[in-house]
Automatic annotation (TrEMBL):
Entry's transmembrane regions: 12-35, 55-74, 94-112, 118-135, 142-159, 171-196, 208-227, 233-254, 275-293
Organism whose genome encodes this protein: Planomonospora parontospora subsp. parontospora
Keywords, comma-separated and alphabetical: Membrane, Transmembrane, Transmembrane helix
Top-level taxonomic group: Bacteria
Protein name per its UniProtKB record: Uncharacterized protein
Upper classification of the organism: Bacteria, Bacillati, Actinomycetota, Actinomycetes, Streptosporangiales
Length: 590
């Protein structure tokens, strides 16, 4: 076993270097303060604060430096003396390996394929959990059995992650396995601490560290929710949580340290310092500290794919803990063949940080600059508010409150909007009743479109007829294009909706052109006995109310007369349909 002097040198050197680096960072600037406290290159600071850190973040970094220094002092305590049997010795080595993995080894391992990382982590904790069951004196068969069951669930979750990395069939969907793995991890820690208490060889301080790690794990969820709600405070909370999260490593190291012979407790070594050993420790630890970087894939309670990214729930239907995951889905999505918003090289935490910066961007140009800095293949695009609402609802909701709704609220609001739009439309011929008739608001595309169709949707050639009608409308600069079983009616004004009334008669009504700006009559044919106007039917374009069948005489030829006027109430159309063999186009009023 390594001597007490060696451990003393490592402890003093590590803690001294962390504190000295933090002080140096204050002098050299924000980027170097970040590097000193978060153990990452100065360039990483630019991911989170382009214009420098605010006061809360600077204070948080200084506090985190003290917390990390204190935890390193506890982690690097001298192992308790005394003989160990083969199992206890193996457990001690594996626990120290797990602590080293968390602090240092994860960085070189992260350079390997993700499947290798997952396999190493699974193998390490499989061995540790088995040795826990063999080494800890549980003093209860029920407690040991419960611990074994929880360990098995925890390892099954890790196995699922490995299967996912290998593109093999998984044990279950990520949205189910992820929460189960989280709960199993908490339960495994709780049962292990209970076992340590019943065993009697572990000190009260070690047990407190174990319970504290459970508390930190539980606090991660509500504190993550504060990231998007505290102005300029999310990064400060993240820095502090990163430091406090080391308490689990303190517990692992303390568990390894206090594995001495029967009944012996590990005590801290005497506080004796020698200047030469401090210098040696600083030189020895410096290369190690330089290799340590912030975790690239933070252990969140969810990931970008755990909730099923192919389901797109409305903001109001998501629990607060699911909103970051929804944004990650959109940030990494490639729907429609478009490139993702952010490259795969960015971690979840970096993408979420960029999302919050995009929320605070003053204009589209600043958003494009941020995307370019992130290495986005969509740097020439801005970001839609319906994507950003998941990371900054308080910002987006101020200008787009409709994006905060649930699916039920959205449907109710949409129904109310359509009902209100329909209510403003009136029948322009209230005393002339048709055999079939309806009045409704007709919704066009947001940027305007060709207009609306009166057509036979069951005719196999209707699409070809509609294309010809479009061509006729543009070639003749006419308001109406007619071809076969399709009549396309354009609009006069640059509008997104208009009031439409349709009426079907058995014979041609009088022209009655007074009060109208244009009146045009064209032929149409119904091959199936159906003529109608498209309805919205859950979409964004179409009539806001059910439209009747205007081919009241069945299959055959019909005439369509279209009345158009523009007034204070907007653009208004009246479509009159009646049987007729004529194929002439008539302009009754221009």
């Amino acid at each position: 076993m390594l001597s007490d002097g060696f451990w003393r040198v490592i402890r003093i050197g590590s803690v001294g270097l962390v504190l000295a680096a933090a002080v140096a960072g204050l002098v050299l600037g924000d980027a170097w303060l970040w590097a000193a406290v978060e153990w990452s290159p100065p360039a990483y600071a630019g991911f989170y604060a382009r214009d420098g850190f605010d006061i809360p973040t600077t204070v948080a970094l200084l506090v985190a430096a003290l917390v990390k220094a204190a935890f390193l002092w506890l982690i690097l305590r001298t192992p308790a003396p005394g003989p160990l049997d083969r199992r206890a010795r193996a457990l001690r080595r594996l626990l120290y390996l797990a602590a080293a993995y968390t602090l240092v080894l994860w960085y070189p391992i992260a350079l390997l394929p993700d499947a290798v990382d997952a396999a190493i982590w699974l193998a390490l904790w499989t061995a540790i959990d088995v040795l826990y069951l063999l080494v800890i004196r549980w003093r209860s068969r029920v407690l040991r059995t419960a611990a074994g069951a929880v360990f098995a669930v925890e390892l099954a979750g890790m196995s699922n992650e490995l299967l996912d990395e290998l593109d093999l069939p998984e044990l279950g969907p990520g949205g189910v396995v992820g929460p189960v793995l989280m709960l199993a991890g908490v339960a495994a820690t709780v049962l292990t601490v209970v076992g340590q208490r019943r065993d009697g060889r572990w000190s009260r301080g070690t047990q407190i560290a174990g319970w504290s790690s459970v508390g930190v794990y539980a606090l991660a969820i509500p504190l993550n929710l504060l990231f998007g709600r505290i102005p300029s405070g999310g990064l400060a909370i993240s820095v502090v949580m990163d430091a406090v999260g080391l308490v689990s490593t303190v517990w692992i190291a303390a568990t390894a340290r206090e594995l001495p012979a029967e009944g012996h407790r590990a005590d801290p070594p005497p506080a004796r310092r020698r200047a030469i050993r401090v210098a040696v420790a600083t030189a020895a630890v410096l290369p190690v500290i330089a290799l340590i970087h912030p975790e690239q894939t933070p252990h969140l309670t969810y990931t970008g794919w755990s909730m099923g990214c192919y389901d797109r729930p409305d903001f109001g239907d998501l629990k607060p803990a699911e909103r970051d995951a929804a944004f990650l889905c959109r940030a990494r999505g490639t729907d429609g063949g478009v490139p993702p918003m952010f490259p795969d090289s960015l971690s979840d935490q970096q993408i979420l940080a960029y999302g919050r910066m995009l929320c605070r961007a003053k204009d589209r140009a600043e958003q494009e600059t941020l995307l370019k800095r992130a290495g986005s293949a969509r740097s020439g695009w801005s970001v839609d508010p319906w994507d950003l609402v998941y990371v900054c609802p308080e910002v987006v909701g101020a200008t787009h409150p409709e994006l905060l709704r649930s699916a039920e609220e959205r449907e109710a609001a949409n129904t109310a909007y359509i009902t209100e739009a329909n209510a403003r439309c009136r029948d322009p011929w209230p005393r002339t009743k048709g055999v079939a008739q309806a009045t409704a608001n007709y919704f066009l595309f947001a940027d305007g479109d060709h207009g609306y169709l009166v057509h036979d949707p069951r005719d196999e050639a209707v699409e070809e007829a509609a294309e010809r009608a479009i061509g006729e409308l543009y070639d003749d600069s006419a308001l109406i294009g007619a071809a076969g079983s399709a009549v396309l009616v354009g609009h006069v004004e640059d509008v997104t909706d208009l009031c439409l009334t349709v009426k079907a008669f058995r014979t041609a009504p009088p022209p009655r052109t007074a009060g109208w700006d244009q009146v045009t009559e064209v032929p149409v044919v119904s091959r199936s006995g159906l003529l109608t106007v498209p309805e919205m039917d859950g979409g964004d374009v179409g009539a806001g109310a059910p439209m009747p069948n205007l081919a009241i005489a069945g299959k055959g030829r019909y005439r369509i007369r279209v009345y158009v006027r523009v007034g204070d109430a907007g653009e208004e159309h009246l479509v009159v349909v009646f049987p007729g063999e004529s194929r002439r186009r008539l302009k009754l009023k221009r």
